[in-house]
Structures are given as C-alpha cells and as structure tokens.
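Module 6 notes. Inverse folding takes a fixed backbone as the condition and produces residue identities as the prediction. Think of it as a translation problem where the source language is geometry and the target language is the twenty amino acids. Below is one complete input and output pair. Work through it position by position during the lab.
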C-alpha cells in the first residue's frame, strides 16, 4: 500500500494536474494527504453569482475522493471515477476557502467506494458519493 514518500509523490501528482493546479488546490495536511484538499473560491472557481461554480466544487470532490483511496492502493494501481452522485445544499461564497474531506467506505477487489464532504465557513456546501475503479497505473 502507498505510504510515506510514495504516498506523498502520488498526492503531488494528483495536485499537479493542470485543472487542480489552476484552482489552487492544496493538501489540508502535508503529512496526511488522505485528510483532503482545499481551494479558495477565486475568479476561476466563481460561478458568476457570488459563489463557487458546481464544476469547481466537483473537482474538489473528485480530488478528495482520490486522496482518500490512495493509501489503499499499491504502487502499480490507480483509481478512476466510474460513478458520482453529488448534492449541493449551500453556496460557497467568493473569496472563501472550501475544504474537501473524503473517506474510503470500502474497497472490494477492483472497486473503491468513497464519501466526500465539502465545508466552507462551517457550512456543508457539497456532498458526494464517488465510486472508483482500481486500474493499473499507466506510466507517463
């Protein structure tokens, strides 16, 4: 399973994806990548009505789900989303930070089931259930 430097390297790769990088996504805890990710609702994440765009929130939910799964993968495995259910109960205001925290509910063979919650200023702004397929890591 991924731990220590191998886990840190894989988490860094996740955050280096151009979309995540453009949103300014950063780990909540550098020592524990599975703890989640955060970004500030800035110009790129703004939906035009004073709060986060649902697409930007979806990126954070997706990244947090993957980070929750990473410690349960081997160095030759990766996890890709195959199903996502999202609820957006509140708005994340412009210029505020949103924290995304995921948990691995279970892993069964080649599937991983996660739950993610996004919180802004103590208010839940999004929830997701993300199912991931565990696949071979493609070099590149």
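Target side of the pair, the amino acids:
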């Amino acid at each position: 399973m991924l731990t220590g430097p191998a886990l840190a390297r894989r988490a860094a790769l996740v955050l280096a994806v151009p979309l995540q990088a453009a949103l300014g996504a950063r780990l909540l805890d550098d020592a524990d990548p599975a703890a989640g990710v955060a970004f500030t609702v800035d110009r790129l994440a703004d939906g035009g009505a004073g709060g986060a765009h649902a697409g930007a929130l979806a990126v954070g939910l997706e990244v947090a789900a993957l980070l929750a799964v990473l410690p349960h993968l081997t160095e030759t495995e990766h996890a890709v989303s195959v199903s996502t259910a999202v609820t957006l109960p509140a708005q994340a205001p412009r210029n505020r930070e949103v924290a995304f925290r995921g948990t691995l509910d279970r892993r069964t063979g080649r599937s991983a089931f996660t739950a993610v919650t996004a919180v802004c200023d103590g208010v839940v702004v999004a929830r997701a259930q993300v199912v991931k397929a565990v696949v071979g890591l493609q070099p590149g």
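Reference fact for the lab report: The mean pLDDT is 97.
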